[in-house]
Amino acid sequence: MDDNENDEFWENDLASIIVDASYHIHVGLGPGLLESVYEEILYHELTNIGLKVTRQQAMPVIWKGRKMELGFRTDLIVENKVIVEIKSVQQINPVHCKQLLTYLKLADLKLGLLINFNSALIKNGITRIINGEL
Fold first, then answer.
1. pLDDT at residue 6 greater than cutoff 70
2. Range(s) of the domain holding residue 97
3. Nearest-CA neighbor of 117 among 12, 21, 52, 49?
4. Which of 1, 3, 5, 51 is most buried by a 10 A CB count?
5. Which pTM does this prediction carry?
6. Burial code of 77-98, b = ≥16 C-beta within 10 A, e = fewer?
């Protein structure tokens, strides 16, 4: 197995861990809270099992060779491999998916998870977004 296969396997493993933690949070708290609450708890759960997670990391945008510091902020980046975008909305719209795909492209990452904690069933609120091929 080459390094790229290892990276892809690790990204998928991370996604499974993140989805599992999200499921347990949703079962425990249910829908209806602010995104920031779910973000804080998911951060806590993932770091407690030893994963490196950054919150609200500013990501600059490079435009015509110039670095724009006020690019965007990611909700969570897990192990510098998976971006997690947390929502607590009535429904996920196409713009939410496009936003995460843009984040992935700008961060040069392959996998993102869009998690809507306001879904009645969390499995219906999780969308995998892939930049390129995994």
1. no
2. 3-130
3. 21
4. 51
5. 0.87
6. bbeebbbbbbbbeeebeeebbe
